[in-house]
Amino acid sequence: MTWQVQFTGLAVDDVADAFAWYAASRSGLGEEFLADLGRVIALIEQSPEATQLKRPVTIRLNEFTVEYFKTMAAETEIPYQTLINLYLRECAGTGRRLAMQWRNAKREVA
Predict the structure, then answer these.
(1) CB within 8 A of 85, min separation 6: which ones?
(2) Which residues contact 41 (CB under 8 A, 6 or more apart)?
(3) pLDDT tens digits, one per residue of 60-69
(4) Among 1, 15, 32, 71, which is least packed by CB within 10 angstroms?
(5) Whole-angstrom Cα distance, residue 58 to residue 45?
(6) Alpha carbon 33 to chain centroid distance?
(7) Helix residue ranges, H only, the chain
(8) Predicted TM-score of the model (pTM)
(9) Please, are residues 45 and 2 in contact by the beta-carbon 8 Å criterion?
């Protein structure tokens, strides 16, 4: 089965606005944006199930961690949730482990 991505309504306007913003930012950047968008659309059309690889979860993070990623997000203009996902994906992909030890407390049952 062949799939085809179609943009409608506001999505068409969003792509046009994004192109205009990139084109105004740097010569040739608008065209780079459209080329990248075309490559992503081609990937989606080849494997539409791949767009469902993320799963929404609820996680409690301490304030320091959230602020750290929000600061990085402001510097990089990447949403902080995306940065957290990228970091965790890198850890999972490289097999990185936390440098900590848990005390194994065994209880005797009387």
Answers:
(1) 54
(2) 5
(3) 999 999 999 9
(4) 1
(5) 30
(6) 17
(7) 9-25, 29-46, 63-76, 80-94
(8) 0.47
(9) yes
Q: Is 77 left (phi over 0), alpha (psi -120 to 50) or beta?
A: left
Position 49, amino acid: E
58 sits in the region (left: phi over 0; alpha: psi -120 to 50; else beta) called beta
> What is the token pair recorded at 53?
């690889």
Distance CA 50, CA 3 (A): 13
CA–centroid distance for 43 within its chain: 16
What would the pLDDT profile of 30-59 be if each residue is shown by its tens digit? 999 999 999 889 888 887 766 557 788 899
Query: What's the one-letter identity of residue 13?
Result: D
By the 8 A CB rule, do 80 and 66 touch? Answer: yes
Q: What gap in Å lies between CA 49 and CA 53, rounded to an integer?
A: 8
